[in-house]
């Protein structure tokens, strides 16, 4: 994944503001490798033979409009108990393909990341369902299976480069796995 020229780590992790990149999870679907970027809320694909690179987002309905288009399901499933938390910020993490290679199941981080706080803060914790298109070259977020945890209050809320979250949500999905029967 290419970084932005002149970008520094001081740019934080705020969507639409940060210039940082943070690739993390990776999955293979057919001829494509999918790599998530937690901060930019995109998934980069690479063709396994030609190395052709493409990008799609998980913040717009189409997967191609970014924050300028109609918001994805993450916006509708976002946490609303702190007006400072940025809505529609899935912070995609680890992922896995379905056995039919038609979907990706992607872990979406929460507002108080238990680990990797420098790049893991998100606003719609749960599992994102991404429909793959163009033979696996691109995709779009179909829905979010939203999770919640308001019991664990022991996790600190100081988020480097993010929002000092004051709400009660502590759900922080860090991985997704698909089990075939």
From TrEMBL:
Query: Which ranges are annotated Polar residues under compositional bias?
Result: 1-12
Organism superkingdom = Eukaryota
Tell me the segments the record calls region Disordered: 1-21
Q: What is this protein called?
A: Uncharacterized protein
Source species, please?
A: Nitzschia inconspicua
């Amino acid at each position: 994944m290419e970084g932005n020229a002149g970008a520094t780590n001081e740019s934080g992790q705020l969507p639409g503001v940060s210039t940082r990149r943070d690739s993390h999870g990776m999955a293979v679907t057919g001829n494509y490798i999918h790599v998530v970027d937690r901060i930019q809320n995109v998934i980069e694909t690479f063709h396994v033979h030609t190395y052709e690179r493409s990008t799609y987002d998980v913040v717009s309905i189409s997967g191609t409009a970014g924050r300028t288009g109609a918001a994805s399901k993450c916006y509708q499933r976002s946490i609303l108990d702190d007006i400072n938390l940025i809505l529609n910020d899935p912070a995609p993490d680890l992922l896995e393909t379905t056995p039919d290679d038609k979907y990706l199941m992607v872990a979406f981080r929460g507002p108080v990341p238990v680990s990797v706080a420098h790049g893991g803060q998100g606003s719609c914790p749960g599992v994102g369902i991404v429909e793959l298109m163009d033979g696996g070259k691109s995709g779009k977020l179909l829905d979010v299976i939203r999770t919640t945890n308001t019991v664990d209050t022991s996790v600190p809320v100081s988020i480097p480069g993010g929002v000092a979250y004051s709400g009660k949500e502590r759900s922080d999905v860090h991985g997704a796995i698909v089990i075939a029967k």
